[in-house]
């Protein structure tokens, strides 16, 4: 049976198990929207700007483990989508993005709303396709979903010329996907796993350093088992939050630039560091040659190119984190049949004491103030009120770091943030995607006033698509993170950071059909949070906080993690920070 | 990261799907990651669905390892082989336009003979010579022509093949099932 390309595309999406599409129509994709008119079984969520469609697809994908799908038109729509594609690439989020394209015979003619879509997205996707024939739609959709969801997940872009969408062709639907050029390796090398197990048990100061790969691979249970079996403390990256319960006795919480003192110290002094699904990002390592300088490094990752990219790895294991961790647990059990030597056991006991001491001496802390709201307090109270069970999304900036530090995560796939790319404006649209995938769950977007403004138009989508996302704006009337850097590193030469007073978020929320709330006193925070949580509609809670508050600990860019600053610096510390600052 | 090894030239063979856009994926990778590419040549192989690129890249062992991994990560790349340290033959074809004044014509032809170069175009005052060879031979030949006045040099970039009876770049395993996009099965809408 012959189908129009547009109808065929929808049929293929249904066969791939897609239930939700985030999109925005336009000329080149009108045939698809015409086909959607009477197509059953696909929910289309109309966003207000194309980047939001991409971020929503990311939120959907990260929260479900399925592939997120977005659909936008040609030209400016495709270029708007680019940020979301790069975001998904850096955070390894599986999405498939469909863009319209001018009809085949006009490609290259500088036609209306034409852009070289595949040329533009080549470097910000895992792979991309230009469909040149209707009968290729099925096989390309099949390959696109396969590539997006397997190996190291990532975004795939499919460009669809309008004439292909109109013309009829036979639907070709391959039962399975075989690609001679793409065969990810899932099982780790048994010999390497054995080596890693021995190394772990011989280690005197071991640390597990865990990233978003553990969440992508659904390997949290295996990680918990390994950590408890070996009693090795666990630190997670920003993307790895939730992979290990924050309040577990073995948890060191987050490491890196704004990581905890104890996580950074433990990693620095470790003699064996096991990286699982993490990629030694510069925000984690600080100065590379000073990162874990005494450690033998085991690196488990699905992506061979992540291994030995930034740092020399002693025991590389390429494979799926879940399968490798499971095998590693088995290997450790096998090794445990022979007794661990007494000196090692003693050293391990000392290590635990040392880590506990760091945790006790230098916990995350901030100064309480009776009159001004401290942003950390808002997040602590949110964490308490929701018992760590909310699905938490953030924008990018100080609020993101405070959310990472003070929200106590219990589960994987409950934390959504733009880690690699640091995309301001990610929060609200991503939260819409999470909410669309989990209609009954509480989704809280912790955002900043600067970051929220970059996609605040999506309040309209929340209202009209019935997505009751709760947004907390940590409002410090400015670009707080930039302010913090200008304060500590650029001698308080503040410039281009003030966002004073406008818009009035309560009135703007109301204008968009959402509920607006505002607090400015510490005593009002808990009642306002309770009111927000009990409101069934989308809510914007504007929390006016202390604009001078900084995120600590802080490792100045280019500094070693042991150079971290724990509080507002005096002159000497400021000089040190300025010195280790190496250009970004 | 530095592992102490010195940067040097590597000859890398890359087999890729013969599809549009593949060359720009490879070229884009090099520019995006800041690797130095010295030459690149592409052509079809015995299997017309596969193209083979020969890349010459300069870097230390760490850089080359990343180059190989990043190339392999591209979805359309089938196989990546570093030919540098195993026996291989590499050749480049060069066309060179050189001044040929009467007093130099004999000498140029003699040198062309020694280097087994061919004269492919002649005028009153110039020759165009065609020469193939490895880097050392080409460099030596150009060096000898330089005093006569070289007007223009056009090089193909290196192609390379491993020595011995067996291919190192061809996949040893039996041919896989056809790609999905080549799948001839046509499935109706109704099923």
Written account of the structure:
The complex is a heterodimer of chains A (584) and B (191). Helices cover 39% and strands 16% of the residues of chain A. Chain A has a 6-stranded parallel sheet with strand order 3-2-4-5-7-6, sandwiched between helices. The model of chain A has no long low-confidence stretch (mean pLDDT 95). Chain B is α+β, with helices and mostly antiparallel strands and 191 residues long. Chain B folds into 2 domains: 8-86, ACT domain (Alpha-Beta Plaits); 89-159, Alpha-Beta Plaits (2-Layer Sandwich), CATH 3.30.70. Chain B has helices at residues 22-33, 61-73, 102-114, 135-145, and strands spanning 8-17, 36-44, 50-59, 77-82, 88-99, 118-122, 126-133, 150-155, 159-162. In chain B, strand 6 (118-122) and strand 7 (126-133) form a beta hairpin. Chain B is elongated and about 55 Å long. The relative contact order of chain B is 0.18. The chains are: A alpha/beta (584), B alpha+beta (191).
User: Structural class from helices and strands of chain B?
Assistant: alpha+beta
CATH superfamily of the largest domain in chain A, called what?
Answer: Thiamin diphosphate (ThDP)-binding fold, Pyr/PP domains
Uncertain runs of chain B: 172-191
- Helix content range of the residues of chain A, please? 25-40%
Give me some keywords for this one.
heterodimer; A: 584 residues; alpha/beta; Rossmann fold; six-stranded parallel β-sheet; 23 helices; 20 strands; globular; B: 191 residues; alpha+beta; Alpha-Beta Plaits; five-stranded antiparallel β-sheet; four-stranded antiparallel β-sheet; 4 helices; 9 strands; 37% strand; elongated; disordered C terminus
């Amino acid at each position: 049976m012959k189908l129009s390309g547009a109808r065929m595309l929808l049929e293929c999406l249904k066969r791939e198990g897609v239930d939700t599409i985030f999109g925005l129509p336009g000329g080149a994709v009108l045939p698809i929207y015409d086909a959607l008119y009477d197509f059953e079984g696909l929910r289309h969520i109309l966003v207000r700007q194309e980047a939001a469609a991409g971020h929503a697809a990311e939120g959907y994908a990260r929260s479900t483990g399925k592939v997120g799908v977005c659909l936008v038109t040609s030209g400016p729509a495709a270029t708007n989508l680019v940020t979301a594609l790069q975001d998904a690439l850096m955070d390894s989020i599986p999405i498939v993005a469909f863009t319209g394209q001018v009809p085949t015979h006009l490609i290259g003619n500088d036609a209306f709303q034409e852009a070289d879509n595949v040329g533009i997205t080549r470097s910000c996707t895992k792979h991309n396709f230009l469909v040149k024939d209707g009968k290729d739609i099925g096989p390309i959709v099949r390959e696109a979903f396969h590539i997006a969801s397997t190996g190291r997940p990532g975004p795939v872009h499919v460009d669809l010329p309008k004439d292909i969408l109109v013309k009829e062709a036979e639907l070709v639907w391959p039962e399975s996907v075989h690609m001679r050029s793409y065969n990810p390796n899932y099982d780790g090398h048994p010999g390497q796993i054995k080596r890693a197990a021995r190394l772990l048990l011989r280690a005197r100061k071991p640390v597990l350093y865990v990233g978003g790969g553990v969440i992508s691979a659904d390997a949290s249970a295996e990680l918990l088992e390994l950590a408890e079996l070996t009693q090795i403390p666990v630190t997670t990256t920003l993307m790895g939050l939730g992979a290990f319960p924050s309040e577990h006795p073995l948890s060191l919480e987050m490491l890196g630039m704004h990581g905890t003192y104890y996580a950074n110290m433990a990693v620095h002094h470790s003699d064996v560091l096991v990286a699982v699904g993490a990629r030694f990002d510069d925000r984690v390592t600080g100065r590379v040659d000073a990162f874990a300088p005494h450690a033998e490094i085991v690196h488990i990752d699905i992506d061979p190119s992540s291994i030995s990219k930034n740092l020399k790895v002693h025991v590389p294991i390429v494979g799926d984190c879940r399968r490798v961790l499971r095998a590693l647990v088995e290997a450790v059990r096998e090794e445990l049949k022979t007794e661990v030597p007494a000196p090692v056991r003693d050293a391990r006991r000392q290590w635990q004491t040392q880590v506990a001491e760091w945790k006790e001496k230098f916990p995350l802390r901030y100064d309480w103030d009776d009159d001004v709201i401290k942003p950390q307090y808002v997040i602590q109270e949110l964490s308490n009120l929701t018992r760590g069970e909310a699905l938490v999304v953030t924008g990018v900036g100080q609020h993101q770091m405070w959310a990472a530090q003070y929200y106590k995560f219990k589960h994987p796939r409950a934390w959504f943030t733009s880690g690699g790319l640091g995309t301001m404006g990610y929060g609200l649209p991503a939260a819409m995607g999470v909410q669309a995938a989990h209609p009954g769950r509480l989704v809280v977007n912790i955002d900043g006033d600067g970051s929220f403004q970059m996609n605040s138009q999506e309040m309209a989508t929340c209202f009209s698509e019935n997505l009751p996302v709760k947004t907390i704006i940590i409002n410090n009337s400015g670009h707080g993170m930039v302010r913090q850097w200008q304060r500590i590193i650029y001698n308080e030469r503040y410039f281009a950071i003030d966002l004073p007073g406008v818009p009035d978020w309560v009135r703007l929320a109301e204008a968009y059909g959402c509920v607006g709330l505002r607090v400015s006193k510490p005593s009002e925070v808990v009642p306002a949070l309770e009111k927000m949580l009990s409101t069934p509609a989308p809510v914007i809670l504007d929390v006016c906080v202390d604009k001078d508050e900084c995120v600590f600990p802080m490792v100045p860019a280019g500094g070693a993690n042991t150079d971290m600053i724990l509080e507002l610096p005096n002159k000497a510390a400021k000089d040190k920070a300025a010195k280790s600052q190496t250009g970004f | 990261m530095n592992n102490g090894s010195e940067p040097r030239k590597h000859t890398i063979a890359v087999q890729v799907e013969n599809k549009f856009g593949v060359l720009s994926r490879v070229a884009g990778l090099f520019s995006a990651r800041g690797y130095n590419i010295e030459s690149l040549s592409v052509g079809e192989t015995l299997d017309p669905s596969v193209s083979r690129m020969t890349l010459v890249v300069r870097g230390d062992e760490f850089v080359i390892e990343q180059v190989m991994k990043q190339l392999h990560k591209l979805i359309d790349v089938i196989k990546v082989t570093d030919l540098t340290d195993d026996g291989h033959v590499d050749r480049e074809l060069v066309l060179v336009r050189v001044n040929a004044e009467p007093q130099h014509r004999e000498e140029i032809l003699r040198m062309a003979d020694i280097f087994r170069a061919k004269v492919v175009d002649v005028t009153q005052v110039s020759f165009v010579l065609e020469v193939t060879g490895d880097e050392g031979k080409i460099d030596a030949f150009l060096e000898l022509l330089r005093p006569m006045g070289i007007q223009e040099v056009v090089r193909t970039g290196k192609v390379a093949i491993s020595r011995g009876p067996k291919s190192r770049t061809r996949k040893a395993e039996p041919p896989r099932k056809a790609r999905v996009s080549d799948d001839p099965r046509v499935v109706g809408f109704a099923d």
